[in-house]
Specification:
Length: 273
C-alpha cells in the first residue's frame, strides 16, 4: 500500500493527450498560435454547440503550421487550449496518455458533450418544425438547415426532411409549391422537390430584400420627412392655439366671478325695479 504514496508515482506524466512523434523529431508551437486558438473557448455549457466548436477549431488549424508538425499532432496538442471551465476539467480527468490520435480526441469530446439527450432534443426540433407566423419562406428553410447541421446524426433521409419541411410551412407556401408542381408537390422526386424548394427560397429572398429596400427608401424619402416635419409643426401650432383659447376662457371665468361677487347684491334689486 505504501507504494501508492511514493514520490515516483506522483511524478509520472498525467497528461491524457500524448500523440506520437516521428522518431528523432520535436516541434515547437509558438505562443502566437496558442493565443489564436484560445480566442475560441468552449466551457461545456448546455447552450454551447460542441460540433460547431470542433468545426471552428479545425478551420483554424487548416490555416496554421508549426515547423512542419503533422496536422493530427498539431490538433491534439492545441485543442486543450480551446477548453476552459467544465470542459477543461473533463479533459484533465481522462486517464494519463489515453488519447494518442485526433480522432480519439474528437470521439471522446463529442461522446461526453454531445449527449444522447442533446441529440434527442435536436431531433425533436427537426421533426416538429413549423414556419413562424411572419417568418419568410427562405428564413424558414435556413432554420431547418441549421437544425440538421446541429444534429448531423438525426437519422432522417433527405426525402423525410423535405416532407417535414412541406408539412411545417404555411398554407400559402404549400400552395406555391403545389402550383409549381402542377398541382401536387408530393408527387415530386427528392431531387425535384429540393430544386423546387431552393428555387422558391431564392425567389422569396430576392423579393424580401427588394421589399426591405423599398420600405427603407420610403422611410428615408426627403419629401416624406419634410411632410412629417410640417405635420409636427402644425400640431404644435394647434396645441399652442388651444392653450391660448383655454387661457382666455379661464380669464373670462375669473372676471365673471369677480363681477358676480361684487355686484351680486345689486343685480337682484335692479331686476325687481
Amino acid at each position: 500500500m505504501g507504494d501508492f504514496d511514493s514520490n515516483p508515482t506522483l511524478l509520472i506524466d498525467r497528461n491524457p493527450i500524448q500523440p506520437p512523434l516521428p522518431e528523432g523529431r520535436s516541434y515547437e508551437i509558438s505562443p502566437e498560435i496558442i493565443g489564436l486558438v484560445k480566442q475560441n473557448q468552449f466551457q461545456g455549457k448546455p447552450q454551447e454547440n460542441p460540433l460547431e466548436h470542433i468545426d471552428a477549431f479545425e478551420e483554424i488549424c487548416g490555416t496554421i503550421s508549426a515547423g512542419g508538425a503533422p496536422k493530427e499532432y498539431l490538433k491534439c496538442k492545441l485543442f486543450s487550449f480551446t477548453l476552459t471551465g467544465k470542459a477543461l476539467r473533463w479533459v484533465k480527468s481522462l486517464p494519463a496518455q489515453s488519447i494518442t490520435t485526433w480522432k480519439e480526441y474528437k470521439v471522446a469530446f463529442l461522446g461526453h458533450f454531445f449527449t444522447k439527450q442533446r441529440a434527442n432534443l435536436l431531433r425533436e426540433k427537426i421533426s416538429s418544425f413549423q414556419q413562424g407566423p411572419v417568418e419568410p419562406f427562405h428564413e424558414a428553410l435556413e432554420r431547418l438547415k441549421d437544425y440538421t447541421r446541429e444534429c448531423p446524426n438525426h437519422g432522417l433521409s433527405e426525402g423525410s426532411l423535405w416532407n417535414i419541411f412541406y408539412r411545417g410551412i404555411s398554407g400559402k407556401c404549400r400552395f406555391s409549391l403545389d402550383t409549381a408542381s402542377n398541382g401536387n408537390f408530393m408527387t415530386k422526386t427528392v431531387t425535384e422537390a429540393k430544386i423546387l424548394i431552393e428555387n422558391l427560397a431564392s425567389s422569396d429572398s430576392d423579393n424580401f430584400i427588394g421589399h426591405e429596400r423599398a420600405v427603407k427608401a420610403i422611410n428615408s424619402d426627403p419629401y416624406r420627412d419634410g411632410y412629417s416635419e410640417i405635420k409636427a409643426m402644425m400640431a404644435e401650432i394647434l396645441r399652442n392655439q388651444g392653450r391660448e383659447v383655454e387661457r382666455q376662457r379661464e380669464a373670462y371665468r375669473v372676471e365673471s366671478t369677480i363681477i358676480q361677487d361684487y355686484f351680486g347684491d345689486l343685480i337682484p334689486s335692479f331686476k325687481k325695479k
